[in-house]
Protein: DUF1815 family protein
Amino acid sequence: MFIRLAKQHSQFVQDLVMNLQALAIVLERKGYLASCYTCGDQMTSASFMVSLGDNHLIRFLVSDYGITWTEMRDDRELMKLEGAEAIAQLQELANLLKYQPESTSSYTAAVAQAI
Structure:
């Protein structure tokens, strides 16, 4: 049972890393500064970052050791989430992008209002 769970967890992390890479590409195409770095070809960890302007930065880290979402403004931490809460916040970011018009300012305004 534990070996099966370990394999499922590894697959989950790999799927999450692939989705972070895709999200970074979409964000870049919409005019945001975004990146997703992975270590090696095994896709067992990633560091995803996006700048929403006005010194507003989101960092999402995923590895076998955990998942964290950190939101910062002016080099101060506004919010830090882990695990399922971090993934839910990432989904909110993806949903906002999905339904946002082509202009990037509306997303930044929506995020600023939420904070």
Remarks:
- The chain has a mean pLDDT of 88.
- Residues 42 and 67 are 17 Å apart (CA to CA).
- Residues 2-29 form the longest helix (28 residues).
